[in-house]
Write a structure and sequence with these properties.
Helix content is about 25%, strand content about 30%. The chain is an alpha+beta fold. Bound molecules: 2-oxoadipic acid (OOG) and magnesium ion.
Length: about 260
Amino acid sequence: MSIDVRHWAQFLLDAADQCLAVQPITGKEDLSLEDAYEIQNALLALRLERGEKLVGAKVGLTSAAKQQQMGVSEPVYGWLTDAMPLPLEAPVPLAELIHPRAEPEIVFYLGEDLHGPGVTAQDVLDATAWVGGGIEVIDSRYEAFNFKLPDVIADNTSAARFALGANRIRPDAVDLALLGVLFEADGALLDTATGAALVGHPAASVALLANHLGRRHHKLQKGWVVLAGGMTGATPLKPGTCVEATYAHLGRVGLRATQEESP
Ligand code: OOG
Ligand code: MG
């Protein structure tokens, strides 16, 4: 039985637009990982059809902290559109989201295309113009953030919003494996990590993404933003929650969650 890719893409887009959590697709369909990436691509196509622009890509479930939190043991890859960046210091609009969580991420700003397969961590560093700090706001469209690997892939790996820090450094300015982050919520330290949490090196995480896309005849493009993966577990955003990621060499990225509608 073949999967109605467009139907499931619309199902997930409706869930996001209406802020209504849905049941995992794997409860109804026997979904392979390839089917799931096809749904993800169809979901991107629906977003592009309504005027969103593709601005980058993300890697997820690369750190042990994230894999343990979600009960999934393989990296996943997703798309970022221009509907997702949060303006600097703008609040996270809870009214537009289901049950968002925040996680600290190292961000790569690409100065060159990267076309897998065969991309190495060094190739990623060579193609990167700048590295910055960020916070990703994930928002699974599935009830209680419960999903199997194909579900989260179909759901564009829970991508919802992201915030980019103001400071950037050259990719060779420091050893990114040693780049530390303190992750805090409402002034309490939640966790600490370094770039090595991401499969040993954040550039190795981005190389996985380039090679994943290369196998599907896509490439990472010059000018794109790439989120290398949550370095710690994600923390829920409730009305008034303030999260802060403070990075070595890159300073602080802060987010405040609000119930108010955005203008
Ligand atoms: C999946 C998204 C994972 C990351 O950085 O690990 C992700 C999820 O946890 O819902 O973005
Ligand atoms: Mg993430």
